[in-house]
Write a structure and sequence with these properties.
Distance between the termini: 17 Å
Structural class: alpha/beta
Strand content: 15-25%
Largest sheet: 5 strands, parallel
Bound molecules: zinc ion
Number of strands: 22
Radius of gyration: 20 Å
Shape: globular
Length: about 350
């Protein structure tokens, strides 16, 4: 038994203390002596909704590397991950130790030459509803579509364009929902958003192209948005690499980079329902959700919004408990309340998954 002296924040209540018994949390003092006491501000374990464990610069990493990625994520205070696409089956990792709970999303779905090479399941638009149904069946309730990407067939005029016609997207989201899965879509471009809204997608990833009117509509409908602020920080590199070969695309990426902070703050002002994701894998490192949260706060998204989205609210949006009586003891402990002192996010005092401490 572990004794937690709080405050323990659950989003709805603040408890002065709690106990961990058989992997679960209780607020009723149990009989017997605790084997140890952990003190600090306790939060439901963080959730990284965009974290490609298993993906690396060589596309698909060895098992040992994937386990190191998972451990880095857990050590950062994250006890729940939605992987949002991996190029192969990663379900083997669920039975390993020091691995957060993972919501597997199957493979990214894209068109040939319209995403990073070697990662996505590449199909033609007419196949989308069928393929979405297949990925939905093998996933843990989420599928990932690439909504837009540079179309390099346009020479110097090449730019971001949507991958899927609207009617196909509509059928694809119906197919996902019929198979018990929600749909998350990668999008940078403004032109894609209205189609995503028409198709009733559940979640927009990045969403850097959203106009103020689109933000309002997204907020009104409760579509989730993951800002991936650290990923947007890399848009300047993308713009520079596009260089003289794709000047239109480069200029658009540079524009979004320059407006990123205002854009992120505007999404918060519009009342968008946030999830928080590091986009670890490929170029961004694992265990970087705390840094992502700080970048979002720095941009002007209120700390209380960011922390809630990364902890109790994010967990509930994904269908997971947030330290209710008898729930799983998945939690993270800090020296101070990260809503008033966000820097503590970088140094969790303790991380418990199923009541087992990682320190
Ligand atoms: Zn990603």
């Amino acid at each position: 038994m572990i004794h937690l002296t709080g405050p323990i924040l659950t989003g709805t209540e603040v408890h002065p203390e709690a106990w961990v018994v058989d992997g679960t949390i209780t607020y009723q003092k149990p009989d017997g002596q605790p084997s140890r006491t952990i003190s600090g501000t306790v939060l439901p374990g963080l959730v990284d909704v965009h974290c490609h464990i298993g993906l690396g610069s060589d596309v698909f990493v060895e098992r040992e590397d994937a386990l190191n990625q998972a451990k880095a994520v857990l050590d950062s205070g994250v006890t729940l991950v939605r992987d949002l696409g991996t190029p192969g089956d990663m379900t083997w990792i669920d039975s390993e130790v020091n691995v957060p709970r993972i919501i597997h999303c199957g493979r990214h779905i894209a068109r040939p030459k319209r995403y990073l090479r070697g990662i996505a399941r590449e199909i033609e638009p007419n196949e989308l509803p069928e393929v979405v149904a297949e990925e939905a069946q093998r996933s843990n309730g989420w599928v990932k579509l690439v909504g837009d990407w540079i179309d390099r067939s346009g020479g110097a005029d090449s730019d971001l364009t949507p991958l899927w016609p609207r009617d196909v997207l509509i059928d694809a989201v119906v197919a996902a929902h019929e198979n018990g899965a929600k749909v998350a879509v990668h999008t940078f471009a403004t032109e894609t958003i209205d189609d995503l809204l028409a198709a009733n997608v559940d979640d927009i990833e990045h969403g850097t192209g959203m106009t103020p009117d689109q933000m309002k509509e997204v907020a009104k409908r409760g579509v989730y948005v993951t800002p991936t602020a650290n990923q947007v920080e890399t848009f300047i590199d993308i713009a520079n690499q596009a260089g003289t070969k794709y000047p239109v695309y480069g200029a658009r990426m540079r524009d979004m980079y320059e407006n990123r902070r205002e854009h992120q703050a505007a999404m918060a002002d519009a009342g968008v329902s946030f999830l928080m994701g590091s986009d670890a894998g490929s170029t961004l490192g694992f265990g970087t959700l705390p840094s992502e949260l700080l970048t979002c706060i720095d941009a002007g998204i209120p700390a209380s919004t960011v922390i809630a989205a990364a902890s109790w609210e994010g967990r509930q949006k994904l269908g997971f408990d947030a330290l209710s009586e008898g729930g799983a003891a998945d939690l993270v402990v800090y020296d101070d309340d990260p809503r008033s002192n966000p820097q503590v996010l970088l140094n969790p005092v303790a991380v418990l998954l199923d009541g087992q401490p990682r320190e």
